[in-house]
Amino acid sequence: MSSIVEDICELLDSYNGRDKVVRLTCYAFKLYGCIKGEQPWQTAGSRLSNARMMLRLFDDIPMIRHTYNYGLGKHESSKMAALLGVLANMVDQAFLPVEKACWLHEVGILKLSTKTADRLEVVSTALWAASLYISLLQTLRSLRHLWWSRDCLQTCSENGGVDARKNLDVRLTLGAVTAGKLCLDIAHAVSCLPPGWLWGERIGPTKVAAIATTSSVIGIALYFARKRLIK
């Protein structure tokens, strides 16, 4: 019991961990509100979503540091991996000020025309979806390399390397689950785009909330799985 409590406290003590919990609570509230038709639950979920966004207002400096340290990805194993890493950083770096501008307009500090504000919202959501898609590509590349490593290990070491193969199997499983989660997140992000953008606004709010809630549960499960299984 104490181990479970310690794990939960460790999750809540970190910025990313607490964000996972708030995200789950946010979309669980929205899902319940949509199913029951109760607006207060949906409002509570929206306010939790706003709380997450407020914390992201201060992510610029850590993101700039990460982008600077990553550079052109010369440490990556291939040029494609480096290109994806640089693209991911560019998209994430662009997303933060755009989201900030949307928030400043929403609270009335930044004066924008309705047309410009709507365009900024679309750009913000499109950057979010693009970031998720790049992450999916990176995850799929990682899965392919892990699969090659497993095949090579099995061919070169028929009687040994049992622990190494088990470790690769665990990483493959977690990678596959991560890819599935990213697919759910992409479905969620694109559904927030306006009509005419793929399946933008074609998925109802209940289904969107269900997709986001499922993704949030998987995210927390992956956190604990990685903590316990990967050593």
UniProtKB/TrEMBL annotation:
Key word Cell inner membrane present: no
The alphabetical list of record keywords is:
Membrane, Peroxisome, Transmembrane, Transmembrane helix
Q: Which Pfam families match?
A: PEX11
Coiled coil region boundaries? none
Which residue ranges does UniProt annotate as crossing the membrane? 208-225
Please classify the protein's predominant subcellular localization into one broad category.
membrane
Look up the record and report any one GO term of the cellular component aspect. Answer: peroxisomal membrane
Q: Where in the cell is it found?
A: Peroxisome membrane
GO BP annotation list: peroxisome fission
Q: Which PANTHER family match?
A: PEROXISOMAL BIOGENESIS FACTOR 11 (PTHR20990), PEROXISOMAL MEMBRANE PROTEIN 11C (PTHR20990:SF1)
According to UniProt, the name of this protein is Peroxisomal membrane protein 11C
- Recorded source organism is Papilio xuthus (Asian swallowtail butterfly)
- Taxonomic classification: Eukaryota, Metazoa, Ecdysozoa, Arthropoda, Hexapoda
**Recorded name of the encoding gene:** LOC106117095
